[in-house]
Amino acid sequence: MSAPGAGPILSLELRRVCYGAVEALREVALELQGGEVVGVTGPVGAGKTTLALVAAGLLPRAVPARLEGVVRHHAGGEPPAGFVFANPWTQLTELGGTVVEEVAVGPENQALPPAVIRARVEDALDAVGASHLAHRVPYELSGGELQRVALASALALDAPLLVLDEPTAQLDPESTVELVERLRGAAARGQTILIVEQNLDVLAALATRVLVLAGGAPVALGAPGAVLDRRPPPGRPAATRQAAARADRRALEVHDLRAGYDGHEVLRGLGTVVGDGEVVAWTGRNGAGKSTLARAVMGLVPARAGGIRVGDVVLDALPIEARARHVGLVFQDPGRQLFARSVLEETLFAPRALGLARTESRERAIEALDSVGLAGDLARHPADLTPQAQRRLAIAAALAARPRLLILDEPTAGQDAEGRAHIARALELQRTRGGAALITHDLAFARGVCDRFVTIAGGQTSSVVGGPPPPVTTTERRGS
Description:
This protein is of the alpha/beta class. It has helices at about 50-55, 90, 100-110, 115-125, 145-155, 175-190, 200-205, 225, 290-300, 320-325, 345-355, 360-370, 385-400, 415-430, 445-450, and strands at about 10-20, 20-35, 35-40, 65-75, 80-85, 160-165, 190-195, 210-215, 215-220, 245-260, 265-275, 280-285, 305-310, 315, 325-330, 405-410, 435-440, 450-455, 460-465.
């Protein structure tokens, strides 16, 4: 870490960056000074993640690609940058059984003395507000908690540059504000930061400059107030609710549910309902129990007490494969549930597994893919899609089974305005067949698509309201 204003930390002069024959970036020139925070934004597919990988020194060294141009890390360092992936599950090394051990992996690979490693790990966890997670098992954490651990792992490297790819995608609004304040403090101490972000409020509050990409090329670079005011907000979809909620016919009913992991109880007597024709937002702080509730409904986390009913079917004693006839669940990390060789095969799997003829299965698949904007990508391999398109593919695969209840866990993470509109359309399709629960911190999106907001805190429902909870916003803009 260098003193603020100590000179350039990173210089990029990129003529082209290509994956095979596909050009991802062209004609990008950017220099970051010590203590500066530079934001990068733009639509999905603009080249933002590629730029982040180049800046961190991971491309082409660790990620195969052809790079034409010059990348200079003026401050040196081994590694020259700490990197935080958009998907925090990607960051896990699986070399540590606890959070402390996971964060220690990087400093241990730097062959530092044990006392220095301990100090770095403790400081990094404290810096991201994750000290209370130190002895938890990483795979038992929520997406937002895991995002903090990934950030701590990057900070523990003590690299001159910190590169963050969508760091707020899994965070609740309060945690997003806390992260902005922590990153602002790090920059004041000399940390140089490059942050890829769709949340324009975060960039307005944090960045000294913002680079806007589109089609792999820069379209604007300047102070947040000058650049972001020319971009439409990623914002809320138009309200297109087509079906009135039928709360007297319940797609989901949960009562007195208790569930958790090993000795850690997460849900403590939780109860909630979702009516047919209704989309309900499940909100709350990271670690409150939202994802655990979704997994318990699906049977992935065993219930210790209480009951779960979908429509007229009691799920309590049913195995996962039987519950899948009634419940569709899309995880925070959609890559964990995609396995087929093409977009069409992925979406055909569920209706075919239900015993439907191929013709009807294909009709269901095409309808679902059309709702999420992927009907033109039938032959593409899921691995070739952007992470945002993979998320929409997972939604289509769940929709094609036509479950009575659809649960989406952070579906808008990293999505641009077009992606949000597709997901809103998919939820309207689900209204015609049953109900949906949306685990989300994206209150702007939820205001446009949800009928009710259920706040979960401490493993229980703490409030049920007809509108969203008040937004949490940053209070200061930089560079305006």
